[in-house]
Amino acid sequence: MTGSSCQRDGPVVTKRWQPPRGARGKAKCEKLARVSRVLVVEDEAHIRELIQLHLGLEGLDVEAVADGQQALVRAGSDPFDLIILDLMLPGVDGISICRAVRREGPNQDVPILMLTARREESDKVLGLESGADDYLAKPFGIRELVARARALLRRPRRSQLQAAAVPAGERPVEIHGLHIDPARRRVRVKGIDVDLTAQEFRLLHVLATHPGIVFSREALLTRVWPDHTFVTERSVDSLVKRLRRRIEKDPANPEIILTVWGSGYKAADV
Fold this sequence. Notes:
This protein has helices at 22-31, 45-57, 68-77, 94-103, 121-129, 142-154, 158-165, 198-208, 217-224, 233-247; strands at residues 15-17, 37-41, 61-65, 82-86, 112-116, 134-137, 173-175, 178-181, 186-189, 192-194, 257-260, 264-267. The protein is α/β, with parallel strands linked by helices. β5 (112-116), α5 (121-129) and β6 form a beta-alpha-beta unit.
């Protein structure tokens, strides 16, 4: 955005606002304890600094940049909890940045609050259709901006909703170089697919989802062979040996599926 208030001389240095120390700062920080980082993209220095100041007082770690190219670099490299984005920027405009963020990178579902001096409905629609979550026209009151930022930060993100929709027993598990995907019944060891039988998979999943917890042979029988058809506790020992041959670097000296003498088996602590 052009104008007499812009500062164009020399390179613009990225600034961070850290929340104030002391009792007042601590009380402010507690308001938004669950959120952390905000990226502010605004080319007008006095607006950028005002936003930094007041979001900093809310306990947020605020990083600010003044042009579109810097914004693309920062949004493409580090995750943020909120992006406040001016529509008209030098270098790359806000619409292009918004679309790029939504297309790829670590902030695909980050809330985006778009700022603009334009008041036409078509501009608002364009911003929202490009992926913005909210829209605030200039000049705006700083209290309204803070309120909208807080509302966006409270809103569940798409990735969180998708994770919550997956039953706990079907969520992927990462442990000791293993990737276990119950929904696809898939196991990878250091990136390489490993074929397991149904019993081997159930045994691995039970142990891997409870690292450090010792399961007796009887307990594993109940979970791996629910109907107990033609199996004994020695069947567990045989199954453990077969599983170790498939996932351990040295089955004779296992590092993942461990024997607890006199008790049973466990997955190594993470």
